[in-house]
Design goal:
This protein has 263 residues and is of the alpha/beta class. The chain has two domains: 4-36 and 106-261, 3-Layer(aba) Sandwich (Rossmann fold), CATH 3.40.50.1000; 40-101, DNA polymerase, domain 1, CATH 1.10.150.450. The chain is built from ten helices and six strands, in the order βαααααβαβαβαββαα. α5 packs parallel to α9. The two termini are 29 Å apart.
Length: 263
């Protein structure tokens, strides 16, 4: 889970007087546009460990722990390897994404139909490479829905959850944070976004990194298809109503936890 102090409630920092509307849907790629149990990220993790062993002489038994340490500290293993080992990031990206993706995912017509119904400008916002993102989107059959792919190169090999990544995405889109909905499977990647003013959507198991997802997200859905069903009401609702609804949910959660602790 990492350092719990890194996960802060945004109820205290988000202004309650915003009544604007959304323009952009920023979607994470891996484990967000397809189910986490597809196995791609597990395979990428194995490729990362292999890269560390073969190219950096890291002992095989040490590689998984070092990966986890760098990921927790810097957001991605790659960032840690750049800072501590001076790796060539392009060589790394090519190596770790060299996978037979069709063994893991297939075309998803239902996802394409769901994206058709979302009227916002749709953007991929990923810590991976543009090439990997395009391969995934093409296999899923949804590449035509996305106007931009913002990849790790666009933010100088920084990575979510580093704030520079979010600032750079906004700069590329010429957007304000409050005009954006960010869809993510990683709670820690939502924290900076919602602190800046984006609407945060957590996809998948909300308890994978945090006990209470309402501390970092405005909405939690099982998958992106469920989000498509709920998005129109999100777009139509004033942000003040959405934030107050989330705050009420947080208060109810705190009360329930207090009751559970009483003898």
């Amino acid at each position: 889970m990492g350092d719990p102090e890194r996960y802060c409630s945004k109820a205290e920092i988000f202004p309650l007087d915003f009544t604007g509307r959304y323009r952009f849907l920023l979607c994470d790629l891996d484990d967000t546009l397809y189910p986490a149990n597809a196995g791609i990220m597990k395979a990428i993790g194995e490729r990362i460990s292999r890269f560390m062993v073969e190219h950096l002489d890291v002992p095989p038994e040490t590689a998984p722990y070092l990966r986890r340490y760098f990921r927790e500290r810097y957001g991605t293993t790659m960032r840690g390897l750049i800072l501590h080992y001076g790796i060539n990031p392009e060589r790394y990206l090519e190596f770790v994404h060299d996978l037979p993706l069709t063994n893991f995912i297939q075309p998803n017509p239902a996802l394409s139909r769901a994206l058709d119904n979302i009227t916002l400008t749709k953007v991929i916002f990923t810590n991976a490479s543009r090439e990997h993102a395009l391969r995934v989107l093409t296999i899923l059959g949804v590449e035509h829905h996305f106007t931009h792919i913002i990849d790790v190169r666009d933010f100088q090999y920084q990575s979510k959850p580093h704030r520079q990544a979010y600032r750079r995405a906004l700069e590329i889109l010429d957007a304000r944070p409050e005009e954006c909905i960010l869809v993510e499977d990683m709670p820690r990647n939502l924290v900076p976004a919602v602190a800046m003013g984006m609407f945060g959507v957590l996809v998948g198991n909300p308890y994978s990194e945090m006990e209470d997802w309402t501390n970092v997200a405005d909405l939690c859905v099982n998958d992106i298809l469920e989000l498509a069903d709920k998005l129109q009401s999100i777009i139509a609702s004033p942000r003040t109503e959405l934030v107050r609804t989330r705050q009420a949910s947080q208060e109810a959660g705190r009360e329930n936890r207090q009751e559970d602790c009483n003898p």
